[in-house]
Amino acid sequence: MTIVGFCRSNCYSWHRASERCFQLSPCLSDPARRPSLGLKVALVMLHLIYVGVLFLFGRDLISKTKKEPWYTAIYLLLFAATLVQYFFTSGSSPGYVIDAMRAVNESHAISRKASMTSNQNGSLIIPVEDTQSGKVILGNNTISWAKLVMDMYPPGSSVRSWACTYCNVIQPPRSKHCHDCDKCVLQFDHHCVWLGTCIGHGNHCRFWWYIAEETTLCIWTCILYITYLKANITRACRWKDAIMILLLATLSICLIFLLLLFLFHSYLVLTNQTTYELVRRRRIPYLRGIPERVYPFSKGICRNLYNFCCASSSIYSVEPLPTPEELEAKSRPYTCLDVLSCCCC
Questions:
Q1: Could you tell me which PROSITE patterns the record lists for this protein (predicted)?
Q2: Which one of 33, 52, 92, 170 has the fewest CB atoms closer than 10 angstroms to its CB?
């Protein structure tokens, strides 16, 4: 009886400890998010291993740190900033359609109630922005989510055609349901397994900065590894040299992947596209009849960069489909006059 009671008390204490751990770390309580947590731990461990081996084997780096401490300080600062940006991006919201719909409907209900109770309507800002006009919808012009979204599609479109069968919400253009997150995402780009979240309107800029920092850190680390091998490698291959060569080979493969990913997303930013739109262009209904070299949502390089970098994350962006006149204008080749007048930007 004593052994049984001891086992029961241990099981009960373990159950309470696991519940507290799940409350402090929601990722552990959700079985769907545990694999992403394991990937995050593995990614952090890889960073620590690559940097730790440099300081463990590289005596030249330690001596250089004593002579020029600013060099190592900048490198370690970039290392820390990359990890912080990684967790900052993974914990950010990509901008869900359901949140934008609730914000619009709540503001619409508040404006209707205010107009019924008082003749003086205050200026109430809805956190939804029309990217074509660049204006934020105000209180006097509030409309419901269904009306707001259907106005972005061609006349005569049916609500059922653009309604998500999983979330039961009307999707604005450039939105898609993510089966991993089980939510519709505004300007859906892709679902990043390493980050454990979707990349969309709300965190695409943060994702781009993370790739830029990760690529810079990888290049710098490769330079440090090559410098070590040039100074210390001998004809008789030591176990330290073999480890450094193996790590450098794997790091070079990661660098090629990061460079391609960075260039690819930079191209998407300059043309105002998403990965989903580029890969599945022929399957998306509102992009089927548009030529591949025409970017329907592009507003010029300068305007695209401004909207991408300076857009407020607290404002949900909704973008209507371009009209046939706008598509015809974008399909025309640029002339010298357009370049001089910066119309292409």
A1: DHHC
A2: 52
Q: Is residue 21 part of a domain?
A: no
Residue 129's beta-bridge partner residues? 136, 317
| Residue 318 · residue 326 · CB < 8 Å | no
b (16+ CB within 10 A) / e for 64-75? ebeeeeeebeeb
Same domain, 210 and 86: yes
- Domain hosting 170: range is 97-197+313-321
Give the torsion through C-alpha atoms of 95, 96, 100, 102, to 10 deg. Answer: -140
| DSSP H helices in 68-143 | 69-90, 97-117
Residues classed as catalytic: 192
Residue 101 and residue 192 in one domain: yes
Distance CA 204, CA 87 (A): 14
Distance CA 343, CA 73 (A): 44
Whether 181 and 112 share a structural domain: yes
**CA 51, CA 64: separation in Å to the nearest integer?**
15
Is 0.90 topped by the overall pTM? Answer: no
Q: In this predicted model, which residue has the larger pLDDT, 16 or 278?
A: 278
Instruction: Provide the residue type at 269 as one letter.
Output: V
Nearest Cα residue to 163 out of 144, 150, 148: 150
* Among candidate residues 76, 60, 54, the one with its CA nearest the CA of residue 244: 54
Residue 151 lies in a domain: yes
**CA–CA gap between residue 175 and residue 130 (Å, rounded):** 15
The count of residues in the chain is: 345
Cβ count near 273 (within 10 Å):
21
Q: Calculate the dihedral angle through the C-alpha atoms of 285, 291, 297, 300, rounding to the nearest 10 degrees.
A: 180
